[in-house]
Write a structure and sequence with these properties.
Trigger factor, domain 2, alpha+beta, extended
Length: 475
């Protein structure tokens, strides 16, 4: 829900003139503002015939030059006929341009920070008839961003959770790297972790045709222990009688092994004979300088002790974003408490969301709106803190945040030291996706704000295990 909410409220916080800028010029209608309360207002503007006639006349003349009407050569159709055919459409377009232009000009010139977009007033707006009216009056409801100011000091106490790096965590990481950089070798006698290659023969009543399948399997992944142990100690050329359906249980694995559809799996719930033709064993890599260099970079560690020490430091560093994320959640909680009495245009926001979000049902809106409003408040708080601390985010900052995300993803796929050019290319591709730039911008801004806030509040350091840390998110 958060991703959806963030996108909706990023749109909410966009100045309306970004969408209307193409209409803006020096001509602005007279706009009147009536404040309803501190965060709601009505903008009224009147467009007369003198305002739009020159524009309509000019456009009709352009239409006459290009009109291709049956019975007339191009550009020779009578102006009256062209006006009859296209006049109302031209009038509608030009009036709408003037409305957009005037709203943009007024909002820009008066430095109004909007929430959402102007919406047609539902109580004071009179019906408009482009067939008969010559003067048009428009009324728009607008929602105004409230002034938010959050002051933080040493009186504000926040816990900072550091994750304890245990020997078990380091050992697990070491074994993962040994497996990742290991090799495969052919062996004659099997263990259950080995990869088997062989011929699979279905045992059928005498006289029925037999089918031999080339099959690869690893007993390690069998769910049935009795079936798994049948393969221990077997040699190349040996045979094993087992039931694949009993052994694996998973229909997808069984259908793949037997080359059948999943709906036919239970038809093969009986014994097969497996003749072993090849056994391959994975051999974990030895801990040596080559592994140290691949994992940490050349000559970063010179022996296993130093390697483990560096891994421990790297692990601790990798958990810092998680610690910061928890700190950000706790900061958000106390910051929201500081602005709980600030008035927001709740009714307008609900109306705007219902009108602009196709999937937003009335029930869903009521259910999700409290969290959405908190997100909006938090976004304004972050911007306020950024402004108060002279924090600005550049395109380079956004790219750097995307590169950090790319680096984390590559590390998850076993490439902890991906080359810089690959990271940058991957980051640039991520930024091309819908809303990605906005998301990374917000994350970069939050990170910069958090780094400043750490110096302004009192942090209480608490060291916890990974399990204890994860439980903090359960409530």
């Amino acid at each position: 829900m958060i991703a959806c909410t963030s996108h909706i409220f990023f749109v909410l916080l966009q100045p309306i003139f970004k969408k209307l800028k193409k209409y803006y010029n020096s001509f602005i209608m007279n706009v009147l503002r009536k404040d309803i309360d501190s965060c709601n207002a009505v903008l009224s503007l009147e467009i007369t015939k003198e305002d739009y006639s020159p524009k309509v006349e000019k456009t009709i003349k352009e239409y006459v030059k290009k009109a291709n009407i049956p019975g007339f050569r191009v550009g020779m159709a009578p102006k009256g006929l062209v006006n009859k055919m296209y006049g109302k459409a031209v009038l509608y377009e030009e009036v709408n341009k003037l409305v957009s232009e005037s709203l943009f000009g007024y909002i820009k010139d008066n430095n109004i920070n909007l929430l959402g977009e102007p919406m047609s007033n539902e109580t004071e707006q009179k019906p408009i008839d482009f067939e008969t009216d010559e003067t048009f009056e428009f009324k728009f409801d607008i929602a105004i961003q409230p002034e938010i100011s959050v002051e933080l000091s040493k009186k504000d106490k926040l816990p900072f959770y550091s994750i304890k790096i245990t020997d078990e965590m380091v050992n697990s990481r070491v074994e993962n790297f040994r497996a990742q950089f290991g090799s495969y070798e052919k062996v004659d006698e099997a263990q259950t972790d080995d990869l088997f290659k062989g011929n699979l023969l279905e045992i059928k009543p005498e006289g029925e045709p037999l089918e031999v399948l080339d099959a690869m399997l690893t007993p390690k992944y069998m769910k049935d222990e009795a079936q798994k142990t049948l393969f221990e100690g077997k040699k190349v050329g040996g045979k094993v009688t087992f039931n694949p359906v009993t052994a694996f249980e998973n229909e997808h694995e069984i259908s793949s092994l037997l080359n059948i559809s999943k709906d036919k799996v239970q038809d093969y719930n009986h014994d097969f004979e497996y003749e072993i033709t090849e056994i391959t064993r994975h051999k974990p890599a030895e801990l040596n300088q080559e592994i140290f260099d691949k994992v940490l970079g050349k000559d970063t560690a010179k022996d296993e002790k130093e390697f483990r020490t560096k891994l421990s430091e790297t692990l601790a560093q990798s958990y810092l974003p998680d610690s910061d994320y928890k700190l950000l959640i706790d900061l958000k909680k106390i910051a929201l408490e500081k602005v709980e009495n600030v008035e927001f245009p709740v009714d307008f926001l609900k109306r705007w969301l219902a009108a602009t979000q196709k999937e937003m049902t009335a029930e869903k809106l009521e259910q999700d709106f409290p969290a959405m409003l908190d997100f909006l408040k938090w976004d304004l708080i972050i911007k306020n803190l950024a402004k108060a601390n002279s924090i600005e985010i550049s395109d380079e900052n956004v790219l750097e945040m995307a590169k950090q995300e790319a680096q984390m993803r590559f590390a998850q796929y076993g490439m902890p030291n991906a080359p810089a050019d690959i990271l940058e290319n991957y980051a640039n591709e991520m930024l091309k996706k819908d809303n990605a730039y906005d998301d990374f911008y917000r994350r970069a801004l939050e990170n910069r704000v958090l780094s400043v806030v750490k110096e302004q509040v009192t942090l209480t350091n608490k060291t916890v295990t990974v399990e204890e840390f994860n439980k903090l998110f359960e409530n």
